[in-house]
Write a structure and sequence with these properties.
Layout lengths: L20 E3 L10 H10 L12 E6 L3 H12 L6 E6 L2 H10 L4 E5 L7 H10 L6 E5 L7 H6 L2 E6 L5 H26 L9 H18 L2 E10 L1 H8 L1 H17 L6 E6 L2 E9 L4 H13 L3 E3 L2 E3 L2 E9 L6 H17 L4 E4 L2 H9 L4 H10 L2 E10 L5 E11 L3 E4 L4 H6 L3 H21 L5 E6 L3 H5 L2 H12 L7 E6 H9 L3 H8 L3 E7 L7 H5 L4 E4 L1 H4 L6 H16 L3 E5 L4 H10 L3 E3 L7 E2 H11 L7
Parallel strand pairs: 2-3, 2-4, 4-5, 5-6, 12-13, 15-17, 17-18, 18-19, 19-20, 20-21, 21-22
Antiparallel strand pairs: 1-3, 7-9, 7-12, 8-9, 10-11, 14-15, 14-22, 14-23, 15-16
Length: 620
């Protein structure tokens, strides 16, 4: 349990003016009996001492002033000399105190005005409070020792037997019993070598995760991971080195999942993971890649480099099953399928997800080599102007993979973020884009605004990102308005929720900022109020069904009018028909970016399109 500070008037019995007290005492403590002394020694119990900066905080839960004053007066005469005593007159008042602050021990009267003391302890336990309890009883012979211990009571004292030594021994014993119980609970639920959950706790966490997923209608990934090459490390470097390797692998796995997910060690070199709250089953593929990446780098052991791989099997709730045992069995079978094929890979029980995983099995090492070999390319999609304004072009990052072909950024974004490659990738993207923009201007293609995608919120938090863009524009002899930084609606929301410093830093450096995919999520209007944005790119969802759907059409017209009234530029994506083009132009939209007007093009082809479009205006 945890506890409270000063007693409020509603907690006090009539006539009691001062509930909390901190004091020094002079009496001598009666020695502990041998059983209780051993209990205290076993857990290394921290006891109050004359040198202690922190007194023990005691909460007395009693309906009458007399019981409180008795406990307070006894502790006033106790040594070690520092205790702080608070009082709650009812069970409900005690629960409020336990919510508000921490207490080392609670002394609870067996009879309270609003409930029995034992009932109060049960309620507190159910609410998650874990403070050790000493029960004050009128008659100890009437108590069932097993029931008292089961409800979480550390010790019990008959009121008629209360004296300094007996009370202090009970307080110490209750704390020692609680510490020992916590230690045994931890040993029963966690792996001693790695600190991960063990098989028993995994089953409990998985059952809870599936229950939550049923309520939320989300997905859960169950993963079994077995190390490849671990036996060779054990045989070569010894079992102690093998144990250290397992502990380091455990740290790597923990570092690649969320705190709400569970990583467990099943025994030997086999691990299990429960990945909760997945919006879509395919989101598990990116987690699987991160885990394989986590195992990949060599581990230094006793001055030598040890390298292991991983075989990973995955089953998804509810697609593959709804029973915890079934999901674990299917994930285990998928893992053994990887082993049978030579290891170092991942298999999903579901064939479609397995194909997706193998199509997109992009690892950190692949990305690093791609940067070194110059495999990244920029494609460009012109924004067809609906008004008299500089033409816009959106830069789109692609990876010309030697085996997978042209890979879109969504398939490697998370790997780049996790591996720290966002910064060098951003630097390359910025240099390449400004060089291309300079080339188009030198070719006489007129004033062009190039939209540059921001890949990660880490770029917004990276103070030098704006400086990098400004320096690149300066070196190319371009104005700061030549580049517009295009930031996904989700990233804008996250930055604004964190205070908006990243966005403001870019604007203060004279750079243009656009929100990409506006209307796709729950961003709302707050970013428009908090940060001076320049452009809104409407998500295709806002254009869908227009002009056939009258309500959607009215909404789109009103939204364009609202945004234009703020002085912002409007670009619409996902436009498919000339009727939509005509409606957007009439509403005041500045440009459209859509495959129907022009698909993304390689740099040279985009230059040719811009040359042909120069001097030509669009009419819907």
């Amino acid at each position: 349990m945890s506890g409270g500070a000063e007693a409020s008037s509603e907690d006090r019995a009539p006539g009691l003016e001062e509930a909390p007290v901190a004091f020094a005492a002079e009496a001598t403590v009666v020695p502990l009996d041998e059983h209780r002394r051993n209990a205290v020694a076993t857990v290394g119990l921290p006891l109050p001492s004359p040198r202690s900066a922190q007194p023990w905080r005691i909460l007395v839960v009693a309906g009458d002033e007399e019981s409180f004053l008795l406990v307070r007066d006894l502790l006033e005469r106790a040594e070690p000399p520092l205790y702080r005593v608070d009082w709650a007159a009812t069970g409900e008042a005690a629960l409020r105190r336990l919510t508000a602050s921490h207490y080392d021990v609670a002394v609870v009267d067996e009879l309270l005005p609003d409930r029995e003391g034992a009932d109060f302890v049960r309620v507190a336990q159910r609410r998650g409070f874990r403070t050790p309890v000493v029960l004050l009883s009128e008659d100890l012979d009437q108590l069932d020792p097993a029931a008292v211990i089961a409800m979480g009571v550390g010790d019990a004292i008959a009121k008629e037997e209360l004296e300094v030594g007996r009370l202090v021994r009970s307080l110490r014993f209750a704390v020692a019993r609680k510490a020992q119980t916590d230690r045994l609970d931890h040993l029963a639920q966690y792996d001693d070598l790695t600190g991960l959950a063990n098989r028993a706790l995994l089953r409990d966490r998985l059952a809870r995760a599936l229950a939550a997923a049923r309520r939320r209608r989300t997905h859960v990934a169950v993963m079994i991971l077995d190390l490849d090459g671990f036996k060779a490390v054990n045989d070569t470097l010894g079992h102690a080195a093998g144990d250290r390797l397992l502990a380091l692998v455990a740290e790597r796995l923990r570092g690649r999942v969320r705190e709400t997910d569970t990583v467990a060690r099943l025994g030997g070199d086999e691990f299990a993971l429960v990945i909760e709250d997945l919006a879509r089953p395919e989101h598990a593929t990116s987690v699987a890649r991160k885990l394989l990446d986590a195992i990949e780098p060599p581990i230094r052991l006793d001055g030598q480099e040890a390298k292991v791989g991983a075989s990973l099997g995955v089953a998804i709730y509810p697609r593959d099953g709804e029973d915890p045992a079934v999901l674990l069995r299917l994930a285990d079978a998928a893992m053994y399928a990887v082993k049978a094929e030579g290891g170092r890979g991942c298999r999903f029980h579901d064939a479609r997800l397995d194909q997706r995983m193998h199509r997109g099995a992009i690892l950190e090492g692949d990305l690093r080599r791609a940067l070194e070999r110059g495999e990244f390319v920029l494609h460009f999609q012109p924004q067809m102007a609906l008004a008299d304004a500089p033409i816009g072009v959106a830069a789109i990052l692609r990876w010309q993979h030697p085996e997978l072909g042209l890979v879109e950024v969504e398939r490697f974004r998370s790997v780049a973020e996790e591996s720290g490659l966002v910064e060098p990738l951003s630097a390359w993207l910025t240099r390449e884009a400004t060089a291309r923009l300079r080339g188009w201007r030198d070719a006489g293609l007129g004033e062009i605004v190039l939209s540059l995608p921001v890949l990660s919120r880490r770029q917004l938090a990276w103070n030098r990102y704006g400086e990098l863009v400004v320096a690149s524009l300066r070196e190319a002899g371009l104005p700061r308005t030549g580049i517009e930084l295009e930031i996904e609606e989700r990233l804008v929301s996250e930055d604004v929720e964190a205070g908006g410093a990243g966005l403001r830093s870019l604007v203060e450096q004279g750079l243009r900022v656009a929100i990409d995919g506006f209307g796709a999520g729950s961003c709302g209007l707050r970013p428009l109020r908090e940060v001076p944005i320049h452009t809104l790119k409407f998500d295709r969802e806002l254009v869908r069904g227009v002009p056939q759907d009258a309500h959607r059409t009215r909404f789109l017209r009103a939204l364009v009018g609202f945004v234009k009234a703020l002085g912002l530029r409007v670009v619409a994506e996902g436009v498919e028909t000339r009727a939509q083009l005509a409606l957007l132009k009439a509403a005041g939209c500045d440009a459209v970016q859509a495959v129907t007007s022009c698909p993304p093009l390689p740099a040279d082809a985009c230059g040719a399109w811009l040359r042909e479009a120069a001097g030509r205006s669009f009419s819907a």
